[in-house]
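Raw record, unedited: Bacterial transcriptional activator domain-containing protein
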Amino acid sequence: MLGIRLLGEMEISRDGERLEMPPSRKTRGLLAYLALANRPLRRERLCALLWDAPDDPKGALRWSLSKLRPIVNDPDRARILATRELVSFDPAGSHIDLAAVRTRLDGGIEGVDTATLKELQAEFRGDFLEGMELSACPDFEVWRIAVREEARALHRQILSAVVERHAGEPDMALPFARRAVALDPDDAGRHSLLLRLLAESGRRDAAEEQYVVSLRQLRDHAAPAEPLVAAWQDLRRKTPAAPAVSAAVEPAQAPVPELDRAPVPIAVSGLAGAERKVATVLAACVHRIADDGADPEELSRQADFLTALRPLVESFGGMMGAALGTSAVVLFGVERTLEDHAVQACRAALAMRAALASGSGGELCLSACLDTGEVLVRETAAGGAETIGPAIQTAARLVHLLPVGIMAVTSAVFDRTAGYFRFADPRDFAPEHAAGPAALRDLLGATRARTRWDLTAARGLDAFIGRAAELATLDEARRKAGAGQGRIVSIVGDAGIGKSRLTHHFAQALPDAGWTLLLADSAPHETGAFLPVRRMLRGWLGIADTAEPEAVAGRLREMVEPLDLLPAAPALSWLLDLPVENPDWKRMGASQRQRSIIDGVLALLTAQARRGPVVIVMDDLHWADEESIAVIDGLVRILPPAAILLLVTYRPGFRDAWTAHSCYTLCHLDPLTDDHADTLLSRLLGPGEDLDPVKRGLIRRAEGNPLFLEEMTRALVETGRLEGRPGAYRAVGDVDDLGMPATVQDVIAARIGLLGALEKQVLQTASVLGRTVPLDPLLAVCRYGDEAVRDALAVLNAAEFLYQTRFLPSAEYRFKHELTRQVSYGSLPRPRRVALHAAVAAAMESLWPNGLAAVVDALADHCEAGEQWDKAARYLIQAAAKAKSRYGLAQAIALAERGLAAAEKTGDPDERCRIEALTLLGDLLSLRGDLAGANGAYVQALGLEEDGHRRPAIANRLHRPLSMTRAGGRVAYYEHGAGSTTLVFIHPFVYGLPVFQPLIEDLCQEFRIITIDPRGTGASDPLAPGYDMHDHTEDVRAVLAEAGAGGPVVGVGISRGVLLLIRLAVLQPELLSRIVLVGAYWRQTVGLGTKVPEGAEAGGLMAALEAGDLRRAVEAFAPTIFSEPGTEELRKQFIDQCLNLHEDTIRRFFTFDPRNDVTGLLGRVTVPTLLAHGGDDRDVPFAAAREMAGRIPGASLYCFEGKGHLPTFTATAEFCDVLRRFVRG
């Protein structure tokens, strides 16, 4: 079916699939006109509607019809019907949204059922032909506007009818009441109805928040707000009003006024029970400079001065509590989250001091202390809210202990504001009642830095890195604009991604090429009309903020007179804060003045563009005022014939109105690649290899965000973990825990704070699920309704907090940045976190009862964080076993230890979980080579296990240490398990006992097992000079003689342990009943020696050995031992284990020794022999094992298909089964 959407942005689809729209807006307008006409139209009428011009209008009409036919005609039906005189559209079998609404409502809305009305309401996806203005076609515009108003009227009727029919069902009516407000934001009645429905549904907090929003919207539209205020007052009389928020802290120890009890009247948006925030606290106290006693009237006067500062404080985003005497606490970043709350608090403090001194004639002064920290904003039992946090207590205590007139900040504030202000040197301040000294800095004044970009530029810019494709996009726009084809380029990206850096890097060279460069920006704390435009104009004229009005007026005259722009002078004068005496200007209303200002700015810019090309950079448009946006809207409409390049930057979530214009280009900034991030860090830190781990950690955490990289680097320097100078740092101390810099946290928190209450709560809930967010458990945990959650996810996706990574069979989302998840998660109070984790765990169990093994890691995390200790212990142990099976040893140990801790909280009377956790932990510590730790875990498990049938399963795992002395040296060995048959495992020096642990776990219940620490390893003595294979063979022989239990044993040799075992089998066959040779070496030309393994050669093994670089040699050798996919963790453990050995042991392992060749002994082996070899062994080729088996009389050969050098690890069960069959022969 053909579908034509006219409500909202025009769209054409067939059977639900969108079709490519005609590129011409007039062609699209023609289709819309025909689709709604429902009758044939004369060609002359259509030409006059859209192409009333001297060129060929009929030809233009024919061209447009030729473009429409392939799109809308069906294979068997022509929908565009044309004769020489008439043109019509056949709508049969198609769906045209507005036509469908008209048809259904033709008989009156009363006869349409509610379900149908809701379906019709869904057709309204926006205004009629949104974004389809054709200002050059006045007849078309008259028609479009008339139909738009008709569509709005129909929409109003539908919404009103649905809300009325759901009387008494506020939850059902609310979505439609919200849409009605969005449709008519200047209608106080619709706002009042929405408030009433919210109150009736029991959403008191949401109603209070909506009242503030509605009031602001009505005032922004210059609409009367009295009906809304009256409705709100009526609702508050009927339902208890929420008390104002108070800043509550513990009483200060010092005898000072209890500021912590002062109420702070703030409406906390989106508060769901409680929320953690980072805020800045300003504790202020007014003093009389000439302190001549505490006269009550004088104190009252001082308190009045302090109260009078409230509007000033609020202009900086602060909220002042009710003054307690001459003192008050002001909170920044609590009512609404600010990314520069500390900066704003300092600015407010300076402004308060200046205002107080001016207003009191210099009689009064202000003392202040500012601190930043986490606060908890929570609901009270009375239904209000309070703010609690140590920063409030600190500031309130210290302000009364500072010298009169001093304003000081803590280190937490200084870290966030350095560069924006001037501070005195730090001094330790140790008040009598403080817990310890506080490093305070006196706040002296502001610097010239106003924005983060100002601060970055003042610190000095690093070399520009990457962004070649983006620069090419900007250069192409410059080329077109310079040729008189004006362009607008929107540079869109997350905070700190480099938008300003890119635009300024690109634009700074243009003035040398004859371009006029104009700069403007917006800041989050600024309010007022046309602020970026005012700033651009002042910068263009070279006017300082402190310039005298006469000088400003003179510069303006010098600009406008040569451009013949005197009619624009009144508007431009107003922008420059000059008095305007023009009588026409004085007679204008507000809207006329706004129009005049916009026209004046556009006239100025286009006049300048006629003299030479102009580039305008408008930074941070997401904070700009509506009037400045209107200037850009007007400029975009006139860009095409002007030599103007407009570069605007903004963050995701800002909705511009320019995408439909042909002069528009979108440039989306992605994170830096890892290579570019590494280049940036090399310039920040230095090129030293010792910094590589630091760089890797920073790149992983920052995920390509340049600001995050720079701020994390600065944090490492400031905390003393990097020493040196820029470009030449060295790492000192622990750099693994990088933390999150305060500036980064504030930026992210502010973005989250702009979200609506529902979106914020969905984001918080999603943060509990982890970086990856499956939709099904999210819907199960969220209590807002599936449709509301999906709508919230759409908003979060559009704002680039989350993005959808999977659609089928079930949807899945992912946080764009892990730091965003951490900040959102950190805003949840601990009880809420615990409850959400428990709910997520229950949802996962319910949703995936047969697939829990696949999600056991996440399930374990949620049960643990949700304090479901019984389940947490069980799932953590399962997760540890799963990690062990994937060779993730470090992760498995951590999980097992957490499982043990959880098990200790369960109160399980039979201690089953603790026993399982301890046994598993013993196995894992054995794999790491920590035999003492492993035995400790096994002994603890035995102490808890009371079942005599189960105890042997634990006891047989113990590594029972023994030793003997030969040739003056100690040789350590271990006994494991129990059984009539003894297995002796022999390994090369560098492999270590962990190489046998998987076999011990599997076989210790059936066999007695002996493992040996060769000399130079483990608990045995170091190697003596000249110690060779003969000596090692004698050591093994001596161990067997002492521990062999009086009979021959089964010898199992691995890798070069095979050489020793063959010697023993030939020289003393009575000691061995059978031998198993795994990954067998038999001469030096097989494996190491004159021919190194291919993989090791590629890794530079021989070059490393020749250079004496043992670390590099081991790192090159390890991939030949553990070559299979998924064995990276084993490889890493092998490297760490080798490098813990004595250097002499490692060096001798890699030393070529022709005496190790046992080629001549193979034919003399009489002991039954099994060769077990990996089919994909990269160290010793399988062909070598086949040849060796042919040289040993009666030897058997077994191939582990697809396995590498150590199938004992990667095919443990198969190996043990082969071994059992061979031993029991």
